[in-house]
Design brief:
The chain is an alpha/beta fold. The protein has 2 domains: 211 residues, Spore Coat Polysaccharide Biosynthesis Protein SpsA, Chain A (Alpha-Beta Complex); 104 residues. The chain contains 13 helices and 10 strands. Strands 1, 2, 3, 4, 5, 6, 7, 8, 9 and 10 form a 10-stranded mixed sheet that branches. Helix 8 runs antiparallel to helix 10 and helix 10 packs across helix 12. The longest helix is centred in the last third of the chain and has 27 residues. It is globular, with a radius of gyration of 20 Å.
Length: 334
């Protein structure tokens, strides 16, 4: 008999993190699950850690990613082809889930058959696993359509999503021709299936680890691939995409500015911020994230000690507001 949920965990050289990821799947309050761990040709002790965990839990299956040079998304696809659950959840090998994540997401979709994909808030942890205090805000709308998601990817990365397997199968696999923004591409294809089928769970249920070498830190690659995705959609459905083009591009340019700033590429960060205002105009100022990003980015023209003080203040404000919104949204501090 098929399980209710398949949890797909791609793993490449995450020896120090993979046990926490798998254990967070094992410890879900929802027990009717299978855990598919895809070893993406790891060269460290990742495989040994996984095998040790399978001894005591028959719900864990290990498969190998046979698609050479296909990367993490090739590993996810290998997991998708092996999955048998009615729902599918994604969990990267260096992240972890809150124990009630699966139950919360699936209970919501059981009550809302019109919803195909759900996502929650997430908390950012550092490489050692400590929470940084950075928690994502709640989106302005609980139910989203394709246009909402293209204007701003509030869903986030793969570890944050649980979806209906049937909808994912109809939408297709992860696109291996893309080198970044691959998660967003799949979420958008699911959003195209029917209007208003993406929904938000207002709890902090995912823990996302920041560490060196992540693709999300490569802002140029992210920018190039977002442009590819946007151009595809504009060509295929111009009546829906053209009305939101300026807003979507302006907000993504602002995001590129932030990523370039975090990468220490200050001239590029300022250039992207100016481009964002050229696209979006003063309407961007209605979003507090613009003020926070602009304060940090524009401060880079000042002497280093002034710049650092302003950047630290901006990060403190961002963290405080995110945490406050989390407490208001859930009725408790996570």
């Amino acid at each position: 008999m098929s399980p209710l949920l398949s949890i797909i965990i791609p793993a490449f050289n995450v020896e120090q993190f993979i046990e926490q990821a798998i254990c967070s799947a094992q410890n879900q309050t929802l027990k009717d699950i299978e855990i598919i761990v895809v070893d993406d040709n790891s060269t460290d002790g990742t495989r040994t850690v996984i095998e040790a965990l399978t001894i005591t839990d028959s719900r864990i299956r290990i498969i190998a990613n046979t698609q050479l040079n296909a990367g993490q998304c090739g590993a996810r696809n290998a997991g998708l082809w092996a999955a048998t659950g009615f729902y599918t959840g994604f969990l990267d090998g260096d992240d972890y889930w809150h124990p009630k994540k699966a139950a919360s997401h699936i209970a919501f979709m059981e009550q809302h058959p019109e919803v195909d994909l759900t996502f929650s808030r997430w908390s950012v942890i550092d490489e050692t696993g400590r929470e940084t205090g950075r928690v994502t805000d709640a989106p302005r709308k609980r139910t989203l359509n394709l246009e909402d998601l293209l204007v701003e990817n509030v869903v986030g990365g793969a570890s944050n999503v649980i979806c209906r397997t049937a909808a994912r199968v109809t939408a297709g696999d992860f696109d291996l021709t893309l080198k970044a923004a691959v998660d967003l591409d799949l979420w958008l294809r699911i959003a195209r299936l029917r209007n208003g089928n993406i929904s938000f769970i207002n709890e902090v249920l995912t823990f996302y680890r920041l560490r060196e070498g992540q693709i999300t830190k490569d802002w140029k690659r992210m920018a190039d691939n977002w442009d590819i995705i946007f151009d595809r959609l504009r060509a295929e459905m111009p009546d829906r995409i053209l009305p939101i083009e300026n807003e979507a591009k302006a907000k993504h340019l602002r995001y590129r500015s932030y990523l370039a700033y975090e990468a220490g590429e200050f001239p590029a960060a300022r250039q992207q911020l100016v481009a964002a205002f050229k696209r979006g105009g003063l309407s961007l100022l209605a979003d507090r994230r613009t003020w926070i990003t602009a304060a940090a980015v524009l401060a880079t023209i000042l002497p280093e000690h002034f710049h650092k003080a302003i950047a630290d203040a901006a990060r403190t404000v961002r963290t405080w507001v995110s945490h406050r919104n989390s407490v208001i949204g859930t009725g408790k501090a996570e």
